[in-house]
Amino acid sequence: RNVKSRHDYQPPAFIISTVKLCFELDNTATKVTSVMQLQRRQAGAPLKLDGQHLQLLSVAVNGKQLSEHEYRLDDESLTLDTLPDSFELTVVTQLSPQTNTALEGLYLAGQTFCTQCEAEGFRRISYFLDRPDVLAEYFVTIIAPAEQYPFLLSNGNKLSEHIDSAGNRVVQWHDPFAKPCYLFALVAGDFDRLTERFVTQSGRDVSLELYVDKGAAAKGEFALQALKRAMRWDEQRFNLEYDLDIYMVVAVDFFNMGAMENKGLNIFNSKYVLADAGTATDKDYFNIESIIGHEYFHNWTGNRVTCRDWFQLSLKEGLTVFRDQEFSADMGSPTLCRIDAVKLIRTAQFAEDAGPMAHPIRPEQVLEMNNFYTVTVYDKGAEVIRMLQTLLGRNGFAAGLALYLQRHDGQAVTCDDFLQAMQDATAKDLSRFALWYSQSGTPELAVSQHYDAPSAQLTLNLSQHTPATTDQPIKQALMLPVQIELLFADGTKQQHLLVMQEASQQFLLPEIHTEPVVVWLEHFSAPVKLKADIDDRHLLFIAGNASDGVARWDAMQQFWSRKVAQAIAGNAVEDVLPEALVSMMASWLQQPEPDLALTAELLSLPDFDTLAEQYQQVPVDGILAALAGFKQLLAMRLREPLLQCYQRLPLSAYHYDQAAAAQRRLRSLCLHYLALSAVDATELLQQHYQSADNMTDTMAALAASQQAQPATFNLLIDDFAQRWQHDALVMDKCFALVASDPAEQVFDGIETMLRHPLFSWHNPNRVRALYSAFSMRNPQQFHRLDGKGYAALEQVVGKLDGINAQVAARLITPLLSWRRFDPVRQQLMQAALQRLANIPGLSNDVYEKVNRSLT
Ligand code: B3K
Ligand code: ZN
């Protein structure tokens, strides 16, 4: 199979300056006419256009039709050998959107035509130079039956619209900004449309349009307002203004990922647009705002300045995730946003580094590009950008970003170009920092302190070591910003930034008159595993006293990691919990922090995945037993303060904002513990469920009862399924709950849901709701020792591979790290992977992962 390497990059032999596309839409026979202006950039080279799953109808050069022996055609390309230096190429193709179940290229989503071109989907629409460094100006004509398709949308500005004599609507679009074909989009359908206006900082009027399923208009309001907030924020924070007269967002039900930043015409998974109190949780609201922001921020970081090749993906994704995280932090609670980001790094990203798909944020080798839209490229990529900001300061970073965008506007560039701009704007040497782009793996940072009273000097010893990864045996020392805080007995505090550049370094802090407690890696200032030997007492002291909420939460996480390890080593859970912990937790419940959500986080144990990443071989049963034991114990010891806290928190009509969401979070945490306390909690759970006026509280009652009160859960989930049987997005929540049932009945539950009228193997949201929940949020049943859990996932991946390989390849992830488990589980997982590997005609998507995992 055709693996590509980053080092093999060659500039294109031809460029395409303009393209005129005409779509005559039809469910099974859409005709696409493409008229391109090409210029040669390399003497003598043939023109090799990418194309897949297309029926070629005709090819013409400068208006003259070519006969079949004047070009070469195979499953992947159309090649023309003798060509002038500058010419017009006309290619006419036909394709079938209705049978396109891969949801890449042009496909039918229900009744709606829509496109997804990133990374390499445009080649399923027409023969083209499908690579991000070929930037063209697009003119698009869409023709479809007028009655059925009131809206025919594409990028840029609408030039004209009319209905022809045959009753077809004909709409023409022009995008004045040259763009790579992955940013092309087309949508045709019937919708409810919401509109808004946004006046940019320089006074230009932009019309905002949000398209949703008919009848769902009210559920689009939050997303539309979030868009306005994002537009204003980017002006205020980075002085970046929108550049077209119209910005459209369309929500569709069938979509492979969250959303897509097509120029002027974002296409969204409806899950990340539609919300109201009854159907969306606080988390859904949060995600909508953040993804609306993310796609909008791409207009500059991704669209105006794009990637030279797909190995540079983090150039736009890491940077844009960082930008959306900063936006979310400014809209809500910076501490909570950071805690959630850190959790993701410590679970999914650390796992990726420790598994067979380990890669640097700028990958070196790729078979299927869609496999590299990873938590490493995105979220570790964002951590790398965050470290830059820490090292350069907010102003330095902003200056670097401004220089980068101004220098490269309209270009397709590399991560090196980005770093160069940062360096030029700040006069800082970033050569060692650049290693973050080429080195994979999770660095381990070992720290210790030594205090010398006579000289009033604090010595801090730091050493870093990155263990080998499957893709890269040898590692170098990285540039690490280590933010610390010193906590003194008299209550005073000091902050320092230690910048590590070598494997081992000593930092001397003078004039320290008493020995402080050191808070390491405040705000998770670098994406590393901290190895610090801090005892229980000091961890609890940090949890109570550090200035940074993230560091306080982190101290509790470290505390619990120690406790879980002690329990796994054979200690009884009652014996390892100090009394000080219980009283500290009780006092947080009695007098919560101003930020109630932080209180909830301080009172939460690390989840299974976070703990699993701390072991070479994951002690599945040990972790599960320890977590259950500690939670049960806390529930009993803290029952009174939990109940009081729960009852004291006022109930008010649902509204999504930071404070109200935080209050619900803490209430739900109390409910979770209370459900576990020995006293029967049925009534409390029932009442929480019945009195909920919003989905957040409804889900809290369901989730809490599922973990502790199975009989209550079965009653409530039946009611829930009945009540929401017609709402696909809510049924996804139901599917996910059913699939996370820790009891064996989960298999019957999944079977029942597969027969639900709303379930479809063709809809990624439905499939993911069931099977991501099962394989990623149900360790009890997924990791069963009889292999039934692994077999369930294996079957689904095998079945989906022929329908939608991209989704299949995403689902397979939990099986890939089979080497991290005990021999019995290893053998079962490996056998499941082996059977998948043997499927004839396996897609590149699944093949690449299975193959890396087995070799
Ligand atoms: N750029 C798209 C992701 C495309 C994924 C292709 N498999 C969404 C985003 O990151 O904004
Ligand atoms: Zn993105």
Q: How does this structure look, described?
A:
This protein is of the alpha+beta class. It has a domain at 1-190: tricorn interacting facor f3 domain (Immunoglobulin-like, Sandwich), CATH 2.60.40. 42% of the residues lie in helices and 21% in strands. A hairpin with a 2-residue loop joins strand 10 and strand 11. The longest helix is centred in the middle third of the chain and has 34 residues, at 375-408. The radius of gyration is 28 Å and the shape is globular. The two termini are 15 Å apart. Bound molecules: (3S)-3,7-diaminoheptanoic acid and zinc ion. Zinc ion binds next to helix 3.
Q: What's the Cα radius of gyration?
A: 28 Å
- What fraction of residues sit in β-strands? 15-25%
Mean pLDDT: 98
Ends apart, CA distance between termini: 15 Å
Number of strands: 31
Instruction: Using the 3D structure, state the CATH architecture of the domain at 1-190.
Output: Sandwich
How would you summarize the topology of this molecule?
Elements: E1 4-5, E2 14-24, E3 30-40, E4 47-50, E5 55-61, E6 64-65, E7 72-73, E8 77-80, E9 86-95, E10 105-109, E11 112-116, E12 136-145, E13 151-154, E14 157-163, E15 168-179, E16 186-189, E17 192-199, E18 205-212, H1 221-238, E19 246-252, E20 259-260, E21 265-269, H2 282-297, E22 306-307, H3 313-331, H4 334-353, E23 365-366, H5 375-408, E24 412-413, H6 415-426, H7 435-438, E25 444-452, E26 457-465, E27 480-487, E28 493-500, E29 504-509, E30 517-519, E31 529-532, H8 536-545, H9 549-568, H10 573-576, H11 579-590, H12 596-602, H13 608-612, H14 620-637, H15 639-648, H16 658-676, H17 682-691, H18 695-708, H19 710-723, H20 728-739, H21 746-754, H22 764-777, H23 779-782, H24 788-801, H25 805-811, H26 813-816, H27 823-837, H28 844-854
Parallel strand pairs: 2-12, 18-19, 19-21, 22-24, 25-31
Antiparallel strand pairs: 1-23, 2-3, 3-9, 4-8, 5-6, 5-9, 7-8, 10-11, 11-16, 12-15, 13-16, 14-15, 17-18, 20-21, 25-26, 26-29, 27-28, 27-30
Helix pairs in contact: 1-2, 2-3, 3-4, 3-5, 4-5, 4-9, 5-6, 8-9, 9-14, 11-15, 12-16, 14-16, 15-16, 16-18, 17-18, 18-19, 20-22, 24-25, 24-27, 25-28, 27-28
Bound molecules: (3S)-3,7-diaminoheptanoic acid and zinc ion (ZN).
